[in-house]
Amino acid sequence: MKHPSSVSLVEVGPRDGLQNEARRLESTDKITLIKGLIDAGLRRIEVASFVSPKAVPQMADAEAVIAGLPARDDLTLIGLVLNMRGYERALATRRADGGGINEIGCVAVASNSFALRNQGQSRDESLSIAGDIIRRAHGDGLSAQITLSAVYGCPFEGEIDPATVIDMARRAADFEPDEIALADTIGVAVPAQVRDLFGSVREAVPHIPLRAHFHNTRNTGIANAWAALEAGVATLDASVGGLGGCPFAPAATGNIATEDLVYLLHRSAVTTDADLDQLIALTGWIGKKLGRDLPAQVSRAGPFPPANLKEAKLKAGGVQPERKRP
Amino acid sequence: MKHPSSVSLVEVGPRDGLQNEARRLESTDKITLIKGLIDAGLRRIEVASFVSPKAVPQMADAEAVIAGLPARDDLTLIGLVLNMRGYERALATRRADGGGINEIGCVAVASNSFALRNQGQSRDESLSIAGDIIRRAHGDGLSAQITLSAVYGCPFEGEIDPATVIDMARRAADFEPDEIALADTIGVAVPAQVRDLFGSVREAVPHIPLRAHFHNTRNTGIANAWAALEAGVATLDASVGGLGGCPFAPAATGNIATEDLVYLLHRSAVTTDADLDQLIALTGWIGKKLGRDLPAQVSRAGPFPPANLKEAKLKAGGVQPERKRP
């Protein structure tokens, strides 16, 4: 298998990440975070969801955050939307200067139990509603994509039959979304499953671009990302710092960390638009704001080779002649 | 690429893991840990190193620990040895009942600076000394293998030329070791490197079994393990709980966690001798003894599907009919 030579990243920290953080951030801090991500080279960012503030208090200030973001031709700001009311809110963020949400993200859940619990919709309802939203968004001139969530497993139903996911992908394709994402929402997938499921879905909907979304809940997230790449997927979700899962919570659910993924990609000669050093600096800042160490490992251990390599080498005596030859 | 259908695990927690833990354990606790690993199905365990107690205080009680371990025909107890003095100590643990160290692990370092810093030997010295030890061990009727360490990078020298590693593997093969391991000692490798290096070394020494050793320092460890498997490697090191790297230390250096690897393997239909539930229980116990949460993620999030799946499903309403069909 041959992986793509460049990867397009979708930064989901401000939405999927933050909504699972215990501490609520000020809108101004969220704006600083998103601007920092833009400065770090990220150009496609899931900035908010338009859901009930009671269900997700962290997203209550979606409009205020988006109002503080720049209008740029090279920027895609994704708003997650689960119903038509949320869509109207996302649409209302569009500004005369071209700013605001310019891509709609919809979700259909592969598990019926999870769909009912997570968004108060049955599986079929979630798919049908996503279809309505995608058609509306396209009519309004916005990009619109769909994430099939919990495709590798559900905490209530256990295994999900790949045939269910493939069938949903076919039905989702009828809505002509700009992209279909397969999400390991609860972080249970392993690379062999990822390879097989992307292979099957690619075959079922060959004309629709695919995206992959992983959580590192069971430490398989980065391996799954690599497996997706090897299956030909060139667009991956990640969240700066691995935002979203407290390491001490019983069910840590952080997304794969953007900097960990970028480290792997760049050292594999796979290019991205991201700047690793700036991502690491941003993780330090947001970790302080949230009052906890974030799970990203590259931010903790540092990139490689280290910036102070020459100094380290001198210190170790590595440039001196060998002490003795046997 | 097709991965092996079964994997042989080498548990390195009691040595590589513990020696990097700040808190020193009682010998009795180490014995309990190793017996717990045996109960969890592990049959090849690196139980101690025979090095200067000044350099590695955690290993000062190597003899006492080994004296407390059972003699079993199906058990391989590895002692790590860096010089002939250490070898004599390992040999002296052999007991009349068949117990004691029955496999010697040697180390040759791919980076000269790292070799000097880590074991006070130049690269060539480390290789030559390993050769002497392997010949002695074989003469004494013991298994003996060699680990080539820091093969993907060195904190002092940076990149390591793969040609250096391939050349070392060829020279190591002349000692007729029972196995050659390639170790990402400082946790910098990425899957593409792993695949390429194992491919090259396999070609250079086709007659010697290969083993892989990864640290999860930059969150690439599990992805690297999968890449090694896909490159045909069927023996992997791991440490229970991911022992060895404090998550709050600037350079976390834990081995990949045995339970995280086992989770991935079993869900990929790759068999091992390990029992996941017992590993998780053991991690809880050793974490308490060390006074910290260990980095293993599966022990935190739990296996999948969860044991209480039926209950969870009932609670979520997933077995009830869908509320409404669109």
Automatic annotation (TrEMBL), chains A, B:
Organism domain of life: Bacteria
Domain Pyruvate carboxyltransferase: 7-280
PROSITE patterns reported in the protein's UniProt record: PYR_CT
Any Gene Ontology biological process: ketone body biosynthetic process
Pfam families in the cross-refs: HMGL-like
Gene Ontology MF terms: hydroxymethylglutaryl-CoA lyase activity; metal ion binding
Annotated region (Disordered), positions in chain: 301-326
UniProt keyword terms in alphabetical order: Lyase, Metal-binding
Entry's family note: Belongs to the HMG-CoA lyase family.
Xref: NCBIfam families: PRK05692.1
Protein name listed in UniProt: Hydroxymethylglutaryl-CoA lyase
